[in-house]
Amino acid sequence: MVEASAPSNIALIKYMGKIVGSGNQPTNASLSYSLDHWRTIVQLESIAGPEDRWAPLERTGYAAPVLSEKGREKFLQHFQFLKETFNAEGAFRIRSANNFPSDCGLASSASSFAALTWAAAEQFQARQSVNELSVLSRKGSGSSCRSFFTPWAIWEKDGAEAPQGLGFQKLLHAAVIVSGAVKEVSSSEAHVRVTTSPNFVGRTDRAEGRLRHLLACLKEENWVGAHEAVWEEFRDMHDLFETSVPPFRYRTTDSKNVVDACHHIWKFKKDGPLVTMDAGPNVHLLYRPEQMELAEKMVRHFREKHVVVTSWGGFR
Questions:
Q1: Which of 13, 89, 182, 218 could form a disulfide with 31 if both were Cys (CB 3.0 to 4.6 A apart)?
Q2: What is the residue-wise DSSP string for 203-251?
Q3: In terms of CATH architecture, what is 2-161?
Q4: Domain layout of the chain by residue ranges
Q5: Rg (Cα) of the chain, in Å, rounded?
Q6: Nearest to residue 308, comparing CAs of 271, 283, 276?
Q7: Residue-averaged pLDDT of the chain
Q8: Residues 6+ apart with CB under 8 A from 76
Q9: Are 19 and 155 in contact (CB under 8 A)?
Q10: pLDDT for residue 121 is more than 90
């Protein structure tokens, strides 16, 4: 029996749109921050029989991810791909669990597929480098390739890597959960639909330009510039959703209220958290460590109406 874990990550420059037939290669480069406190554990155990099986992992402080039949099949298919890659045989029971709630807006597929790839490499004594494992993991879940690097990860083509010389190595994270409902449009479907938006023309250039600007801001520890780039990026992504054919939206009135409150903080204080949203209604905030007092104040405010998950204080 072997066990491995990997963190979730939150993209600040988004991976949105896939190159058809490429095995989840993105149409533009992305940059993420790894959320090392929020992790998936995967455990592999050899079993008798012809087929691999998935089962929930029971562990204090962890809960099994909510997997649809399609999601379970995708997870098992990736393990089969890894066995073929490593020239391995035999059947295994795959147990997994997350230490973050499934409705908090963190991509559990990123941490799950990264942890599964790590566990398989250990089980079958593979000699691949971390970069090579990142490439393998990407074929199961695109964003999982970024979960092999911390705190920052950049993903341009085949797999991710750790960018050099970036500041802000230790950030605080909070997720404001405005809705825990199952998304009507999955992230996978969103990747397809955004390409039908008239605004998708030029998307790659816009994202690449923001990436270069954000990397420069992070190297210079220019927090204001970083905030502006991250803010523009998530708004660009959600505009693509809402102008696709047919259009769809993740932003809600509650999302807007949270984002507007963050905008007010920035306008009043000339400082605040980095603010972003993924393919969902929940809002993610990143703070510098010296902003703990502000972070706590904002979390208390948002908790009057919403559940808020934090890297420093769990969730309520």
A1: 13
A2: HHHHHHHHHHHHHHHHHHT-HHHHHHHHHHHHHHHHHHHHTSSS-----
A3: 2-Layer Sandwich (3.30)
A4: 2-161, 172-315
A5: 19
A6: 283
A7: 92
A8: 52, 53, 54, 94
A9: no
A10: yes
Residue 196 near residue 245 (C-beta atoms within 8 A) = yes
Tokens of 250: 């993740």
Nearest-angstrom CA–CA distance, 76 and 94: 8
CA distance 307 to 104: 9
Place of tokens 């920035």: 266
Angle, helices 130-138/69-85, rounded to nearest 10 degrees: 140
Residue given tokens 């409902």 in the structure block: 181
The token duo for 68 is: 């649809």
- What token pair was written down for 79? 């393990």
Helix (H, G, I), strand (E, B) or coil at 171: coil
What are the tokens at 69? 């039949």
Q: Which two tokens stand for residue 54?
A: 């998935």
Q: Which CATH architecture has domain 172-315?
A: 2-Layer Sandwich (3.30)
CA 145/CA 154 separation, integer angstroms: 9
Confidence band for 153, pLDDT divided at 50, 70 and 90: very high
Q: In this model, does residue 23 exceed pLDDT 80?
A: no
CA dihedral for 7, 256, 190, 103, sign (positive or negative) = positive
| Distance in angstroms (rounded) separating the CA atoms of residues 47 and 207 | 46
* Residue of 250, 297, 298, 303 lying closest to 277 (CA atoms): 250
106: its two tokens = 């963190």
Model confidence, pTM: 0.93
* Residues 10 and 174: beta-carbon distance below 8 Å: no
∠34-309-2 over CA atoms, to 5°? 50
